[in-house]
Amino acid sequence: MTGVSREVITLQLGHYSNFVGTHWWNLQDASLCYDPGSAPPEVQSDSVFREGQTPGGSVTYTPRLIAMDLKGSLRTLRQEGSLYDPGGAAAAAVTWAGSVTVHKHSPPEKNCFLEDLEKLDKGQILTEAEFCSASQLQGSGKMPRPLMPRPSDALPLQEGSVTVWSDFLRLHLHPRSVVVIHQFNHDGEAHRLETFGQGESTLQGALLDELEDRLHFFVEECDYLQGFQVLCDLEDGFAGLGSKVTELLQDSYGGRGILTWGVAPVVHRDSTPARDRYHLLNAALGTVNMAAHSSLFCPLTLRGGLGGRPPPPPLFPLLSYNPALWYHSSAILALALDALTVPYRLRNNSAPMWQVADSLAVAGRKVVAAYGAVPFPMMPGGSLPDALSACADALPWKPLSACPEAAGSRCYGQWSTLRGYEGQKLISCLSPGIEPLTPLHGLHSGEDILAAYVSSFYPSAPLALQLVSAPSKLTPPFPQIFSPTLDAQGFMRGGAPPAGAPPVSSVPILTSLQSGTALHPFLSELQRAAATFDVRRRAPSFLSQGPEMADYQEALEELRLLGHCYHDDSGGTTRSSSEDDDD
Protein backbone atom coordinates (compact mmCIF):
# COMPACT_ATOMS: atom_id res chain seq x y z
CA MET A 1 0.00 0.00 0.00
CA THR A 2 1.59 3.20 -1.20
CA GLY A 3 1.99 6.53 0.54
CA VAL A 4 3.61 7.61 3.75
CA SER A 5 1.73 6.15 6.69
CA ARG A 6 1.64 7.86 10.09
CA GLU A 7 1.30 4.88 12.40
CA VAL A 8 -1.13 4.67 15.30
CA ILE A 9 -0.90 2.17 18.17
CA THR A 10 -4.23 1.18 19.72
CA LEU A 11 -4.67 0.17 23.36
CA GLN A 12 -7.91 -1.41 24.60
CA LEU A 13 -8.22 -1.55 28.38
CA GLY A 14 -11.17 -3.45 29.79
CA HIS A 15 -13.94 -5.75 28.64
CA TYR A 16 -16.37 -3.21 27.19
CA SER A 17 -13.48 -1.42 25.50
CA ASN A 18 -12.64 -4.71 23.83
CA PHE A 19 -16.27 -5.07 22.75
CA VAL A 20 -16.10 -1.67 21.04
CA GLY A 21 -12.61 -2.34 19.75
CA THR A 22 -13.53 -5.74 18.29
CA HIS A 23 -16.37 -4.22 16.27
CA TRP A 24 -14.03 -1.41 15.17
CA TRP A 25 -11.32 -3.85 14.01
CA ASN A 26 -13.92 -5.96 12.20
CA LEU A 27 -14.94 -2.81 10.31
CA GLN A 28 -11.31 -2.15 9.39
CA ASP A 29 -10.86 -5.75 8.29
CA ALA A 30 -13.96 -5.55 6.07
CA SER A 31 -12.55 -2.48 4.30
CA LEU A 32 -9.16 -3.99 3.44
CA CYS A 33 -8.38 -4.29 -0.26
CA TYR A 34 -5.94 -6.96 -1.51
CA ASP A 35 -6.30 -6.27 -5.23
CA PRO A 36 -2.97 -4.74 -6.37
CA GLY A 37 -4.67 -3.36 -9.47
CA SER A 38 -7.32 -1.33 -7.65
CA ALA A 39 -7.02 2.34 -6.70
CA PRO A 40 -5.61 2.95 -3.21
CA PRO A 41 -8.43 3.38 -0.68
CA GLU A 42 -9.03 6.76 0.94
CA VAL A 43 -8.35 5.43 4.43
CA GLN A 44 -4.75 4.31 4.99
CA SER A 45 -5.00 0.87 6.61
CA ASP A 46 -1.24 0.75 7.24
CA SER A 47 -1.74 3.42 9.89
CA VAL A 48 -3.35 0.85 12.22
CA PHE A 49 -2.25 -2.49 10.72
CA ARG A 50 1.26 -3.90 10.57
CA GLU A 51 3.00 -6.39 8.33
CA GLY A 52 4.83 -9.27 9.96
CA GLN A 53 6.10 -12.74 9.25
CA THR A 54 5.43 -16.07 10.88
CA PRO A 55 8.31 -18.44 11.77
CA GLY A 56 7.34 -20.37 8.64
CA GLY A 57 7.86 -17.32 6.44
CA SER A 58 4.21 -16.42 5.76
CA VAL A 59 3.53 -12.69 5.60
CA THR A 60 0.85 -11.47 8.02
CA TYR A 61 -1.20 -8.30 8.38
CA THR A 62 -2.42 -7.78 11.94
CA PRO A 63 -3.66 -4.88 14.10
CA ARG A 64 -1.07 -2.71 15.82
CA LEU A 65 -2.89 -3.40 19.08
CA ILE A 66 -2.44 -4.08 22.80
CA ALA A 67 -5.65 -5.39 24.40
CA MET A 68 -5.82 -5.90 28.18
CA ASP A 69 -8.51 -7.90 29.97
CA LEU A 70 -9.04 -10.13 32.99
CA LYS A 71 -8.66 -13.84 33.67
CA GLY A 72 -11.50 -15.82 32.07
CA SER A 73 -12.44 -13.11 29.55
CA LEU A 74 -11.12 -14.79 26.38
CA ARG A 75 -13.10 -18.04 26.29
CA THR A 76 -12.14 -19.75 23.02
CA LEU A 77 -9.45 -17.23 22.04
CA ARG A 78 -5.87 -18.23 22.82
CA GLN A 79 -3.94 -15.39 24.45
CA GLU A 80 -1.06 -15.84 22.00
CA GLY A 81 -3.45 -16.27 19.06
CA SER A 82 -3.29 -19.00 16.43
CA LEU A 83 -1.74 -17.19 13.47
CA TYR A 84 1.88 -17.76 14.50
CA ASP A 85 1.27 -21.26 15.91
CA PRO A 86 3.34 -20.77 19.07
CA GLY A 87 2.69 -24.40 20.00
CA GLY A 88 4.20 -27.03 17.79
CA ALA A 89 6.89 -29.56 18.47
CA ALA A 90 8.92 -27.37 20.80
CA ALA A 91 5.96 -26.75 23.05
CA ALA A 92 4.96 -30.39 22.97
CA ALA A 93 8.39 -31.71 23.97
CA VAL A 94 8.60 -33.13 27.51
CA THR A 95 12.02 -33.27 29.17
CA TRP A 96 10.85 -34.76 32.48
CA ALA A 97 11.94 -38.41 32.73
CA GLY A 98 9.53 -39.41 35.50
CA SER A 99 5.86 -40.27 35.38
CA VAL A 100 3.50 -37.65 34.01
CA THR A 101 -0.15 -37.13 34.97
CA VAL A 102 -2.27 -35.35 32.40
CA HIS A 103 -5.38 -33.45 33.46
CA LYS A 104 -7.76 -32.53 30.65
CA HIS A 105 -10.83 -30.36 30.58
CA SER A 106 -13.19 -29.59 27.75
CA PRO A 107 -12.53 -26.20 26.12
CA PRO A 108 -15.44 -23.76 25.74
CA GLU A 109 -17.57 -24.48 22.70
CA LYS A 110 -17.28 -22.13 19.76
CA ASN A 111 -20.37 -20.51 18.33
CA CYS A 112 -21.36 -21.15 14.71
CA PHE A 113 -19.64 -18.00 13.48
CA LEU A 114 -16.28 -18.97 15.03
CA GLU A 115 -16.65 -22.52 13.73
CA ASP A 116 -17.10 -21.14 10.21
CA LEU A 117 -14.04 -18.94 10.63
CA GLU A 118 -12.01 -21.95 11.70
CA LYS A 119 -13.18 -23.87 8.62
CA LEU A 120 -12.22 -20.92 6.43
CA ASP A 121 -8.74 -20.88 7.96
CA LYS A 122 -8.36 -24.60 7.25
CA GLY A 123 -9.63 -24.22 3.69
CA GLN A 124 -12.74 -26.28 4.34
CA ILE A 125 -15.01 -23.42 3.19
CA LEU A 126 -14.36 -21.30 0.11
CA THR A 127 -15.47 -17.69 -0.10
CA GLU A 128 -17.08 -16.16 -3.18
CA ALA A 129 -14.58 -15.55 -5.97
CA GLU A 130 -15.82 -12.03 -6.63
CA PHE A 131 -14.79 -10.95 -3.13
CA CYS A 132 -11.13 -11.89 -3.41
CA SER A 133 -9.47 -14.33 -5.79
CA ALA A 134 -6.64 -16.58 -4.75
CA SER A 135 -4.33 -14.93 -7.27
CA GLN A 136 -5.01 -11.50 -5.75
CA LEU A 137 -4.18 -12.77 -2.28
CA GLN A 138 -0.96 -14.28 -3.53
CA GLY A 139 -0.10 -11.07 -5.35
CA SER A 140 -0.63 -8.98 -2.25
CA GLY A 141 1.74 -11.09 -0.19
CA LYS A 142 -0.53 -10.80 2.87
CA MET A 143 -2.37 -13.48 4.78
CA PRO A 144 -5.53 -11.95 6.30
CA ARG A 145 -8.42 -13.85 7.76
CA PRO A 146 -10.33 -15.08 4.66
CA LEU A 147 -13.39 -13.01 3.95
CA MET A 148 -16.76 -14.37 4.95
CA PRO A 149 -19.46 -14.93 2.29
CA ARG A 150 -21.95 -12.21 1.54
CA PRO A 151 -24.15 -11.32 4.55
CA SER A 152 -27.19 -12.83 2.81
CA ASP A 153 -25.42 -16.18 2.47
CA ALA A 154 -23.62 -16.30 5.80
CA LEU A 155 -25.02 -17.92 8.88
CA PRO A 156 -26.01 -15.04 11.19
CA LEU A 157 -24.43 -14.90 14.60
CA GLN A 158 -26.96 -15.68 17.29
CA GLU A 159 -26.89 -12.76 19.70
CA GLY A 160 -27.38 -15.05 22.67
CA SER A 161 -24.12 -16.80 21.84
CA VAL A 162 -22.09 -13.61 22.43
CA THR A 163 -20.80 -13.50 26.00
CA VAL A 164 -17.29 -12.06 25.47
CA TRP A 165 -15.70 -9.95 22.74
CA SER A 166 -13.72 -12.82 21.24
CA ASP A 167 -17.03 -14.48 20.32
CA PHE A 168 -17.30 -12.12 17.33
CA LEU A 169 -13.65 -11.34 16.53
CA ARG A 170 -13.17 -12.04 12.81
CA LEU A 171 -9.46 -11.32 12.33
CA HIS A 172 -6.19 -12.70 13.69
CA LEU A 173 -4.20 -10.90 16.38
CA HIS A 174 -0.45 -10.76 16.86
CA PRO A 175 0.91 -12.93 19.70
CA ARG A 176 1.96 -9.75 21.54
CA SER A 177 -1.46 -8.13 21.36
CA VAL A 178 -3.46 -9.73 24.19
CA VAL A 179 -2.47 -9.16 27.83
CA VAL A 180 -4.39 -11.03 30.54
CA ILE A 181 -4.35 -9.71 34.12
CA HIS A 182 -4.46 -12.99 36.01
CA GLN A 183 -4.86 -11.59 39.53
CA PHE A 184 -8.44 -10.48 38.80
CA ASN A 185 -11.39 -12.53 37.51
CA HIS A 186 -13.73 -11.58 34.72
CA ASP A 187 -16.59 -13.59 36.24
CA GLY A 188 -17.60 -14.41 39.79
CA GLU A 189 -17.71 -12.46 43.01
CA ALA A 190 -14.11 -12.89 44.20
CA HIS A 191 -11.00 -11.04 43.01
CA ARG A 192 -12.79 -8.39 40.97
CA LEU A 193 -11.18 -5.26 39.55
CA GLU A 194 -13.80 -2.86 40.88
CA THR A 195 -12.11 0.31 42.10
CA PHE A 196 -9.91 3.05 40.70
CA GLY A 197 -7.23 2.40 43.33
CA GLN A 198 -7.05 -1.28 42.46
CA GLY A 199 -6.42 -0.39 38.83
CA GLU A 200 -3.70 2.12 39.70
CA SER A 201 -1.86 -0.32 41.95
CA THR A 202 -2.13 -3.12 39.38
CA LEU A 203 0.19 -1.49 36.85
CA GLN A 204 3.48 -2.31 38.51
CA GLY A 205 6.01 -5.12 38.64
CA ALA A 206 5.65 -7.86 36.04
CA LEU A 207 2.54 -6.35 34.42
CA LEU A 208 4.25 -2.98 33.94
CA ASP A 209 7.31 -4.69 32.48
CA GLU A 210 5.12 -6.69 30.10
CA LEU A 211 3.24 -3.60 28.93
CA GLU A 212 6.45 -1.63 28.37
CA ASP A 213 7.96 -4.55 26.45
CA ARG A 214 4.96 -4.76 24.13
CA LEU A 215 4.86 -1.00 23.65
CA HIS A 216 8.54 -1.01 22.69
CA PHE A 217 7.90 -3.85 20.23
CA PHE A 218 5.20 -1.95 18.34
CA VAL A 219 6.83 1.49 18.66
CA GLU A 220 10.26 0.44 17.41
CA GLU A 221 8.90 -0.90 14.12
CA CYS A 222 7.10 2.40 13.33
CA ASP A 223 8.70 4.90 10.96
CA TYR A 224 6.33 7.84 11.56
CA LEU A 225 4.51 7.15 14.81
CA GLN A 226 1.89 9.85 15.29
CA GLY A 227 0.48 8.59 18.56
CA PHE A 228 -1.84 6.32 20.49
CA GLN A 229 -5.58 5.82 20.53
CA VAL A 230 -6.70 4.43 23.89
CA LEU A 231 -10.07 2.84 24.60
CA CYS A 232 -10.55 2.43 28.34
CA ASP A 233 -13.43 1.25 30.51
CA LEU A 234 -14.45 4.30 32.53
CA GLU A 235 -16.54 2.83 35.34
CA ASP A 236 -14.53 -0.04 36.81
CA GLY A 237 -10.96 -0.53 38.01
CA PHE A 238 -9.65 -0.11 34.48
CA ALA A 239 -10.23 3.63 34.96
CA GLY A 240 -7.33 3.62 37.42
CA LEU A 241 -5.21 1.37 35.23
CA GLY A 242 -5.97 3.58 32.20
CA SER A 243 -4.89 6.64 34.16
CA LYS A 244 -1.52 5.01 34.82
CA VAL A 245 -1.21 3.81 31.21
CA THR A 246 -1.87 7.28 29.77
CA GLU A 247 0.58 8.76 32.29
CA LEU A 248 3.18 6.23 31.11
CA LEU A 249 2.54 7.14 27.48
CA GLN A 250 2.80 10.84 28.28
CA ASP A 251 6.09 10.38 30.13
CA SER A 252 7.68 7.93 27.69
CA TYR A 253 6.47 9.26 24.34
CA GLY A 254 6.18 13.01 24.80
CA GLY A 255 5.17 14.87 21.68
CA ARG A 256 3.03 12.00 20.37
CA GLY A 257 -0.73 12.32 20.32
CA ILE A 258 -2.74 10.47 22.97
CA LEU A 259 -6.45 10.34 22.12
CA THR A 260 -8.34 8.57 24.90
CA TRP A 261 -11.91 7.33 24.66
CA GLY A 262 -13.51 6.54 28.02
CA VAL A 263 -16.22 3.99 27.22
CA ALA A 264 -19.17 2.89 29.34
CA PRO A 265 -22.08 0.52 28.58
CA VAL A 266 -25.69 1.54 29.01
CA VAL A 267 -26.25 -1.26 31.55
CA HIS A 268 -23.70 -3.19 33.59
CA ARG A 269 -24.34 -6.92 33.63
CA ASP A 270 -23.71 -7.33 37.37
CA SER A 271 -25.10 -4.05 38.62
CA THR A 272 -25.93 -3.56 42.30
CA PRO A 273 -26.47 -0.31 44.27
CA ALA A 274 -23.01 -0.63 45.82
CA ARG A 275 -21.32 -1.25 42.47
CA ASP A 276 -23.25 1.60 40.87
CA ARG A 277 -21.69 3.92 43.47
CA TYR A 278 -18.28 2.55 42.53
CA HIS A 279 -19.08 3.15 38.86
CA LEU A 280 -19.80 6.82 39.57
CA LEU A 281 -16.61 7.37 41.59
CA ASN A 282 -14.47 5.52 39.04
CA ALA A 283 -15.90 7.65 36.23
CA ALA A 284 -15.17 10.87 38.12
CA LEU A 285 -11.57 9.94 38.94
CA GLY A 286 -10.95 8.35 35.55
CA THR A 287 -12.21 11.39 33.65
CA VAL A 288 -10.04 13.94 35.46
CA ASN A 289 -6.90 11.77 35.48
CA MET A 290 -7.05 10.48 31.91
CA ALA A 291 -7.88 13.97 30.64
CA ALA A 292 -4.78 15.29 32.41
CA HIS A 293 -2.51 12.68 30.80
CA SER A 294 -4.04 12.71 27.29
CA SER A 295 -3.93 15.11 24.39
CA LEU A 296 -7.70 14.76 24.20
CA PHE A 297 -10.24 12.80 26.27
CA CYS A 298 -13.73 11.86 25.04
CA PRO A 299 -16.37 9.92 27.02
CA LEU A 300 -18.11 7.45 24.72
CA THR A 301 -21.40 5.92 25.79
CA LEU A 302 -25.03 5.54 24.75
CA ARG A 303 -26.21 6.15 28.29
CA GLY A 304 -28.08 9.39 28.87
CA GLY A 305 -25.66 10.36 31.67
CA LEU A 306 -23.16 8.96 34.15
CA GLY A 307 -25.08 10.01 37.27
CA GLY A 308 -27.33 7.88 39.44
CA ARG A 309 -30.54 8.36 37.43
CA PRO A 310 -29.54 9.02 33.84
CA PRO A 311 -32.03 9.89 31.08
CA PRO A 312 -32.84 7.11 28.59
CA PRO A 313 -30.38 6.29 25.78
CA PRO A 314 -30.67 8.27 22.55
CA LEU A 315 -33.10 7.07 19.89
CA PHE A 316 -31.60 6.63 16.43
CA PRO A 317 -34.42 6.89 13.86
CA LEU A 318 -32.89 4.32 11.50
CA LEU A 319 -31.77 1.78 14.12
CA SER A 320 -33.60 -0.83 16.14
CA TYR A 321 -31.25 -1.92 18.90
CA ASN A 322 -31.29 -3.22 22.45
CA PRO A 323 -29.37 -0.69 24.62
CA ALA A 324 -28.81 -3.26 27.34
CA LEU A 325 -27.07 -5.65 24.93
CA TRP A 326 -23.32 -4.93 24.85
CA TYR A 327 -23.10 -6.56 21.43
CA HIS A 328 -25.52 -3.90 20.09
CA SER A 329 -24.41 -0.77 21.93
CA SER A 330 -20.71 -1.39 21.25
CA ALA A 331 -21.47 -1.87 17.53
CA ILE A 332 -23.05 1.60 17.32
CA LEU A 333 -20.13 3.21 19.15
CA ALA A 334 -17.66 1.41 16.87
CA LEU A 335 -19.46 2.66 13.76
CA ALA A 336 -19.25 6.22 15.07
CA LEU A 337 -15.61 5.72 16.08
CA ASP A 338 -14.83 4.55 12.56
CA ALA A 339 -15.77 8.03 11.32
CA LEU A 340 -14.46 9.99 14.33
CA THR A 341 -10.95 8.58 13.81
CA VAL A 342 -10.89 9.18 10.04
CA PRO A 343 -9.09 12.57 10.11
CA TYR A 344 -5.76 11.04 11.20
CA ARG A 345 -6.10 7.83 9.15
CA LEU A 346 -6.56 9.29 5.66
CA ARG A 347 -4.12 8.50 2.88
CA ASN A 348 -4.19 12.08 1.57
CA ASN A 349 -4.89 15.37 3.35
CA SER A 350 -4.88 13.71 6.75
CA ALA A 351 -4.68 15.68 9.98
CA PRO A 352 -2.25 14.13 12.48
CA MET A 353 -3.43 13.43 16.00
CA TRP A 354 -1.66 16.44 17.47
CA GLN A 355 -3.42 18.76 15.03
CA VAL A 356 -6.85 17.35 15.89
CA ALA A 357 -6.08 17.66 19.61
CA ASP A 358 -4.58 21.15 19.43
CA SER A 359 -7.54 22.49 17.48
CA LEU A 360 -10.00 21.35 20.16
CA ALA A 361 -8.05 21.38 23.46
CA VAL A 362 -7.87 25.16 23.82
CA ALA A 363 -7.48 26.94 27.17
CA GLY A 364 -7.23 23.70 29.14
CA ARG A 365 -10.36 22.18 27.62
CA LYS A 366 -9.04 18.66 26.95
CA VAL A 367 -12.43 16.94 27.30
CA VAL A 368 -14.58 16.77 24.15
CA ALA A 369 -17.97 15.32 23.31
CA ALA A 370 -18.89 13.06 20.39
CA TYR A 371 -22.09 13.10 18.35
CA GLY A 372 -23.19 10.87 15.49
CA ALA A 373 -25.92 10.33 12.91
CA VAL A 374 -25.71 6.54 12.69
CA PRO A 375 -26.60 6.14 9.90
CA PHE A 376 -26.89 9.53 8.19
CA PRO A 377 -30.24 9.67 6.29
CA MET A 378 -29.67 9.95 2.51
CA MET A 379 -31.93 8.97 -0.36
CA PRO A 380 -30.54 6.96 -3.31
CA GLY A 381 -29.85 9.28 -6.21
CA GLY A 382 -30.23 12.33 -3.99
CA SER A 383 -27.70 14.99 -3.12
CA LEU A 384 -26.02 16.25 0.03
CA PRO A 385 -28.03 19.53 -0.05
CA ASP A 386 -31.24 17.47 -0.21
CA ALA A 387 -30.22 15.38 2.81
CA LEU A 388 -29.11 18.35 4.91
CA SER A 389 -32.11 20.49 3.97
CA ALA A 390 -34.35 17.77 5.40
CA CYS A 391 -32.57 18.40 8.72
CA ALA A 392 -32.79 22.20 8.59
CA ASP A 393 -34.50 22.57 11.98
CA ALA A 394 -32.25 20.30 14.03
CA LEU A 395 -28.88 18.64 13.66
CA PRO A 396 -29.27 14.97 12.67
CA TRP A 397 -26.73 13.58 15.12
CA LYS A 398 -27.34 12.16 18.59
CA PRO A 399 -25.14 12.44 21.70
CA LEU A 400 -22.50 9.73 22.12
CA SER A 401 -20.92 11.22 25.26
CA ALA A 402 -23.95 11.77 27.52
CA CYS A 403 -23.82 15.49 26.59
CA PRO A 404 -27.09 16.46 24.88
CA GLU A 405 -27.06 19.65 22.86
CA ALA A 406 -29.61 22.25 23.91
CA ALA A 407 -30.65 25.43 22.19
CA GLY A 408 -28.59 28.54 22.83
CA SER A 409 -25.17 27.25 23.80
CA ARG A 410 -21.66 27.85 22.64
CA CYS A 411 -19.22 25.68 20.68
CA TYR A 412 -15.51 26.43 20.96
CA GLY A 413 -14.53 24.23 18.02
CA GLN A 414 -15.38 20.98 16.28
CA TRP A 415 -14.35 18.36 13.73
CA SER A 416 -17.16 17.03 11.54
CA THR A 417 -16.77 13.96 9.34
CA LEU A 418 -19.14 12.69 6.66
CA ARG A 419 -18.32 9.18 5.56
CA GLY A 420 -20.07 6.93 3.04
CA TYR A 421 -21.73 9.13 0.40
CA GLU A 422 -20.34 6.88 -2.35
CA GLY A 423 -22.62 6.97 -5.40
CA GLN A 424 -24.46 10.09 -4.21
CA LYS A 425 -24.15 13.65 -5.51
CA LEU A 426 -22.38 16.15 -3.27
CA ILE A 427 -23.87 19.15 -5.09
CA SER A 428 -27.27 19.71 -6.68
CA CYS A 429 -26.03 20.28 -10.30
CA LEU A 430 -28.63 22.89 -11.18
CA SER A 431 -29.34 23.70 -14.81
CA PRO A 432 -28.59 27.27 -15.92
CA GLY A 433 -31.35 29.67 -14.92
CA ILE A 434 -32.83 27.35 -12.27
CA GLU A 435 -33.23 28.97 -8.87
CA PRO A 436 -31.76 26.84 -6.03
CA LEU A 437 -34.31 25.42 -3.59
CA THR A 438 -32.19 26.48 -0.59
CA PRO A 439 -28.89 28.33 -0.13
CA LEU A 440 -27.21 24.92 0.25
CA HIS A 441 -28.34 23.94 -3.25
CA GLY A 442 -26.53 26.93 -4.69
CA LEU A 443 -23.08 26.00 -3.34
CA HIS A 444 -20.47 24.31 -5.51
CA SER A 445 -18.59 21.83 -3.29
CA GLY A 446 -19.43 19.25 -0.66
CA GLU A 447 -17.12 20.92 1.83
CA ASP A 448 -18.83 24.30 1.39
CA ILE A 449 -22.27 22.71 1.72
CA LEU A 450 -21.48 20.83 4.92
CA ALA A 451 -19.63 23.84 6.38
CA ALA A 452 -22.56 26.16 5.64
CA TYR A 453 -25.02 23.72 7.22
CA VAL A 454 -23.03 23.16 10.42
CA SER A 455 -22.18 26.85 10.71
CA SER A 456 -25.87 27.72 10.65
CA PHE A 457 -26.06 26.09 14.10
CA TYR A 458 -22.62 27.24 15.27
CA PRO A 459 -22.08 30.60 13.52
CA SER A 460 -18.85 31.65 15.23
CA ALA A 461 -17.24 28.29 16.07
CA PRO A 462 -14.05 27.13 14.34
CA LEU A 463 -14.87 24.15 12.13
CA ALA A 464 -12.77 21.45 10.45
CA LEU A 465 -14.31 19.04 7.96
CA GLN A 466 -13.47 15.68 6.40
CA LEU A 467 -15.51 14.11 3.60
CA VAL A 468 -14.77 10.48 2.76
CA SER A 469 -16.61 8.77 -0.07
CA ALA A 470 -16.03 5.16 1.05
CA PRO A 471 -18.60 3.89 3.59
CA SER A 472 -18.13 1.75 6.63
CA LYS A 473 -18.54 -1.79 5.30
CA LEU A 474 -20.55 -4.24 7.36
CA THR A 475 -19.84 -7.96 7.30
CA PRO A 476 -20.81 -10.77 9.64
CA PRO A 477 -20.87 -10.71 12.61
CA PHE A 478 -21.97 -7.05 12.72
CA PRO A 479 -25.56 -7.09 14.10
CA GLN A 480 -28.37 -6.29 11.67
CA ILE A 481 -29.93 -3.55 13.81
CA PHE A 482 -31.00 -1.34 10.91
CA SER A 483 -34.46 -0.15 9.91
CA PRO A 484 -36.09 -2.06 7.02
CA THR A 485 -36.42 1.32 5.28
CA LEU A 486 -32.69 1.15 4.43
CA ASP A 487 -31.37 -0.53 1.31
CA ALA A 488 -28.18 -2.60 1.12
CA GLN A 489 -26.01 0.54 0.85
CA GLY A 490 -27.61 2.11 3.91
CA PHE A 491 -29.64 4.68 1.94
CA MET A 492 -33.34 5.26 2.60
CA ARG A 493 -35.76 3.47 0.28
CA GLY A 494 -38.50 5.34 -1.47
CA GLY A 495 -41.12 2.78 -0.45
CA ALA A 496 -41.65 -0.53 1.32
CA PRO A 497 -38.74 -2.99 1.19
CA PRO A 498 -39.13 -5.69 -1.47
CA ALA A 499 -39.44 -9.32 -0.45
CA GLY A 500 -36.08 -10.97 0.04
CA ALA A 501 -34.23 -7.64 0.19
CA PRO A 502 -30.54 -8.08 1.10
CA PRO A 503 -29.38 -6.89 4.51
CA VAL A 504 -27.51 -3.64 5.00
CA SER A 505 -23.85 -4.06 3.99
CA SER A 506 -22.61 -0.46 4.35
CA VAL A 507 -23.84 2.82 5.85
CA PRO A 508 -23.16 6.55 5.57
CA ILE A 509 -22.27 8.25 8.86
CA LEU A 510 -22.01 11.88 9.99
CA THR A 511 -20.09 12.57 13.21
CA SER A 512 -18.92 15.55 15.19
CA LEU A 513 -16.22 15.90 17.84
CA GLN A 514 -16.89 19.09 19.82
CA SER A 515 -15.56 21.26 22.57
CA GLY A 516 -18.38 23.40 23.94
CA THR A 517 -20.53 24.44 26.86
CA ALA A 518 -22.61 21.24 26.58
CA LEU A 519 -19.77 19.62 28.56
CA HIS A 520 -20.26 21.91 31.54
CA PRO A 521 -23.44 20.22 32.87
CA PHE A 522 -21.93 16.78 32.23
CA LEU A 523 -18.70 17.46 34.15
CA SER A 524 -20.41 19.49 36.88
CA GLU A 525 -23.02 16.80 37.51
CA LEU A 526 -20.32 14.14 37.68
CA GLN A 527 -18.30 16.20 40.15
CA ARG A 528 -21.30 17.09 42.34
CA ALA A 529 -22.52 13.48 42.49
CA ALA A 530 -19.08 12.26 43.59
CA ALA A 531 -18.46 15.15 46.03
CA THR A 532 -21.80 14.79 47.83
CA PHE A 533 -21.22 11.06 48.33
CA ASP A 534 -19.64 10.31 51.73
CA VAL A 535 -17.12 7.74 50.52
CA ARG A 536 -15.58 7.10 53.96
CA ARG A 537 -18.91 6.23 55.53
CA ARG A 538 -20.83 4.61 52.66
CA ALA A 539 -18.02 2.96 50.65
CA PRO A 540 -14.90 2.75 52.85
CA SER A 541 -13.45 -0.12 50.80
CA PHE A 542 -13.27 2.11 47.72
CA LEU A 543 -10.18 3.87 49.08
CA SER A 544 -8.61 0.76 50.64
CA GLN A 545 -6.01 0.51 47.86
CA GLY A 546 -5.83 4.21 47.09
CA PRO A 547 -6.01 7.00 46.42
CA GLU A 548 -5.45 8.72 49.75
CA MET A 549 -8.37 10.84 50.95
CA ALA A 550 -6.47 14.06 50.30
CA ASP A 551 -5.65 12.95 46.75
CA TYR A 552 -9.27 11.93 46.20
CA GLN A 553 -10.54 15.34 47.29
CA GLU A 554 -7.91 17.08 45.17
CA ALA A 555 -9.03 15.10 42.12
CA LEU A 556 -12.65 16.15 42.66
CA GLU A 557 -11.56 19.77 42.95
CA GLU A 558 -9.65 19.44 39.66
CA LEU A 559 -12.80 18.00 38.10
CA ARG A 560 -14.81 21.00 39.34
CA LEU A 561 -12.28 23.40 37.82
CA LEU A 562 -12.27 21.41 34.59
CA GLY A 563 -16.05 21.71 34.37
CA HIS A 564 -15.82 25.45 34.99
CA CYS A 565 -13.64 25.77 31.85
CA TYR A 566 -16.78 24.99 29.85
CA HIS A 567 -19.07 27.46 31.63
CA ASP A 568 -20.52 29.98 29.19
CA ASP A 569 -20.07 33.52 30.47
CA SER A 570 -20.87 35.13 27.11
CA GLY A 571 -24.60 35.17 27.52
CA GLY A 572 -25.14 32.34 25.02
CA THR A 573 -25.16 34.05 21.67
CA THR A 574 -25.26 30.96 19.46
CA ARG A 575 -27.95 28.43 18.60
CA SER A 576 -26.58 25.16 19.80
CA SER A 577 -26.02 24.23 23.46
CA SER A 578 -27.25 25.24 26.86
CA GLU A 579 -25.97 27.69 29.40
CA ASP A 580 -25.79 26.39 32.93
CA ASP A 581 -26.27 28.81 35.79
CA ASP A 582 -24.35 26.69 38.29
CA ASP A 583 -20.73 27.55 38.86
Description of the molecule:
This protein is α/β, with parallel strands linked by helices and 583 residues long. The protein has three domains: 272 residues, Tubulin/FtsZ, GTPase domain (Rossmann fold); 148 residues; 45 residues, no CATH class. It contains 15 helices and 15 strands. The termini are far apart.
Question: What key attributes describe this structure?
Answer:
6-stranded parallel sheet; mitochondrion; Rossmann fold; cytoplasm; disordered C terminus; 3 domains; DML1/Misato_tubulin; 15% strand; 15 strands; alpha/beta; 15 helices; 5-stranded mixed sheet; 583 residues
Distance between the termini: 52 Å
Largest sheet features? 6 strands, parallel
Give, in spatial order, the strands making up the sheet with the most strands. Answer: 5-4-1-6-7-8
Write the H/E string, N to C. Answer: EHEEEHHHEHHEHEHEHHEHEEHEEEEHHH
Low-confidence stretches: 88-92, 128-143, 145-154, 572-583
Question: How much β-strand is present in the residues?
Answer: 15-25%
Number of self-contained structural domains? 3
Write down the Rg. Answer: 24 Å
The CATH topology of the largest domain comes to Rossmann fold
Helical element count?
Answer: 15
CATH superfamily of the largest domain: Tubulin/FtsZ, GTPase domain
Helix content: 25-40%
Count all strands and give the number: 15
What integer is the average pLDDT? 85
CATH architecture of the largest domain: 3-Layer(aba) Sandwich
> Class by helix and strand content?
alpha/beta
Q: Indicate the CATH class of the largest domain.
A: Alpha Beta
Shape: globular
